[in-house]
Amino acid sequence: MQQEKIDIIKSQIASADASNAEQLEAYRMQYISKKSVVGELFAEMRNVPNEEKKAYGQLINEVKILAEEKFQELIERVNSSQNQSKNQDIDLTLPPSNVSVGSVHPLTATRQRIIEIFERIGFNLSEGPEIEDDWHNFTALNFPENHPAREMQDTFFIEKGPDIALRTHTSSVQVRVMENQKPPIRTLSPGRVYRNEAISARAHCIFHQVEGLYVDENVGFSDLKNTLYHFAKEMFGKETKVRFRPSYFPFTEPSAEIDISCQLCGGAGCNVCKGTGWVEIGGSGMVDPNVLENCGIDSKKYTGFAFGMGIERIAMLKYQIKDLRLFTENDIRFLKQFKAMT
Ligand code: DAH
Q1: pLDDT reported for residue 109
Q2: Which positions does UniProt annotate for Mg(2+) binding (predicted)?
Q3: How confident is the model at residue 170 (pLDDT cuts 50, 70, 90)?
Q4: Distance between CA 28 and CA 42 in Å, rounded?
Q5: Atom 8 in ligand 1: residue holding the nearest Cα
Q6: Ligand 1 mean position to 250 CA, how many Å?
Q7: pLDDT at residue 282 above 80?
Q8: Alpha-carbon distance 337 to 110, whole Å?
Q9: Which residues' Cβ are closer than 6 Å to ligand 1?
Q10: Which is more confidently placed, 101 or 172?
Q11: Residue 269 vs residues 108, 276, 277, 311: alpha-carbon distances, Å
C-alpha cells in the first residue's frame, strides 16, 4: 500500500516540469515543503509498525533525495531559460540608459584654478595638519599670549595647556614650511580651517583658505602687489581692479587687506559690495621679521610676503553664490550647475 503510494509520487516527481518562478514554487510546495506529499510520508512514520520503520525510512529518504535533486534541476532549467530570453530581448537600437555623471564641487574647481594660476608663476604646493599646536597656529606667527588678536579667531580648542586646536587659518603652514625649508620659498597652501562661529549665509565654522608665501632676498611690497594683481586678473578677468587697504595682522608688517572690484556691479555699487564697489578677498603683508626669526630664517638677509584668501569667498564672487551654506548642504540642484567644469 505504502509502496504503491511511494511509486506514484516518484513517477510524479520524475515527470514534473517548471518553466517559470511560479511553477518552481508550486513544485516546492508539492514535493519539498513540510506540508508537501513527501513531508506527509515523513509524518506517517509514526504509524508504521516498529519492525518496518527501518525499511520505510529508507524508502522515503530516497523519495526526498529524488525530490530535491529534481528541484535543483528545475531551478537550473528556469534560470537558463530566463537568461536566454534576456539575451534575445537586447535591442541594440535603443538609446543608452541615462548614466548620470557627477560634477566637480565648486570649491574644488575654485581651489584647482587658484593652484593653476600660482603654479605657473613658480609656486609649489604645501600642506599642514588641521589639528595644530599653539606654536604653529599662534605663537610663531607673532601672536603673543593673551593678545586680543587671538580672540579675533574664535578657536575650537581640543586640549588646553599645552594648547592643541583646530587650525583657525592656513598661516600655520607658513611656519611649518619655513621651519623645514631654506629660502627661496614660493609656496601655496590650500586647506580647511575652523572657527567657532554661528553658521549663516556669510559665516561657517568650517571653511577653506589658501595661503601664499614668498621668501627670498630682496622681496618687496611691489612683488606682493604684482603677484596679487596677476592672480586677480587671471581669476576674475582682465577688467578686475585690485585695491590694498592698510590693515593689521600680527605676522605681517605692513599689512593690507586685498579688495577686488565687485564682480556683480563692476564697481558701480550694489548690495553684494554694500554700495562700495569693492569686495574683500583676503589679507596680506610683508612677513614680520619676528616670524622669520621664529622659524630660523635670517631676517637681515631675507624678506618675504604672504597672503591668505578665503576659497569660499572667491567661489562666491566668481559664480555669484549668495549663501555660504550651499557649499556644504550637498543639494544636487546646486551642485549639478557646475557640470560644465568637470
Ligand atoms: N590668516 C589671516 C586670517 O585668517 C589671513 C592672512 C592675512 C594671511 C595676512 C596672510 C597674511 O598670510 O599675510 O585672517
Answers
A1: 95
A2: 253
A3: very high
A4: 16
A5: 308
A6: 9
A7: yes
A8: 14
A9: 169, 171, 211, 249, 252, 255, 283-285, 306-308
A10: 172
A11: 29, 5, 4, 23
DSSP string computed for 154-216:
---EEETTTTEEE-SSTHHHHHHHHHH-PSSEEEEEEEEEE------SS--SEEEEEEEEEEE
* DSSP label at residue 331: -
Interacting residues of 263 by C-beta distance below 8 A, sequence separation 6+: 236, 240, 272, 279, 317, 318, 320
User: Percentage of residues in the chain with pLDDT exceeding 70?
Assistant: 98
> Regarding predicted confidence, which is higher, 200 or 188?
188
Closest CA to 238 of 261, 264, 272: 261
| Cell representation of residue 56 | 520505510
* Residue 125 parent element (H or E): strand 124-125
Any binding-site annotation on 253? yes
How far away, in angstroms, is 282 Cα from ligand 1 center? 7
Pair type for strands 164-166 and 131-133: antiparallel
DSSP label at residue 277: S
pLDDT at 145 over 90: no
CA 192 to chain centre: 12
Q: How far apart are CA 292 and CA 187, in angstroms?
A: 15
How much is the pTM?
A: 0.73
